[in-house]
Amino acid sequence: MCARAQIKDETKYQKLRDKGESKEKAARIANASAAQGGKKVGRKGGKNPSYDDWTEEDLLKRAREIGIKGRSSMNKSQLVKALRDH
After folding, report:
1. Cα distances (angstroms) measured from residue 81 to each of 51, 56, 57, 67
2. Distance CA 22, CA 28 (A)
3. Residue 29, class by beta-carbon neighbours within 10 Å (0-12 exposed, 13-18 middle, 19+ buried)?
4. Please, what is the angle between helix 76-85 and helix 56-66, to 10°?
5. Tell me: the pLDDT tens digits for 12-63?
6. Domains of the chain, residue spans
């Protein structure tokens, strides 16, 4: 359980992961929600577009930045999944 100790709202985290959010984003939202309350966090909203809206070239560049292996042979949907799973 040590690796997951930083998650403050496990239920919110799991719901976000089930919806396809990355581990990092789900943890960030779940922790902010636990600290500030869900309604306040929900109003704030995100500033970055969804990976689905990125070009394949931009997805590949981001995958390279964070070190996803096998990225050069992935198509756009595989890159999106790999980035969300990272």
Report:
1. 9, 12, 15, 14
2. 10
3. buried
4. 40
5. 888 888 888 888 888 888 887 766 665 555 555 566 678 888 899 999 999 9
6. 2-44, 51-85
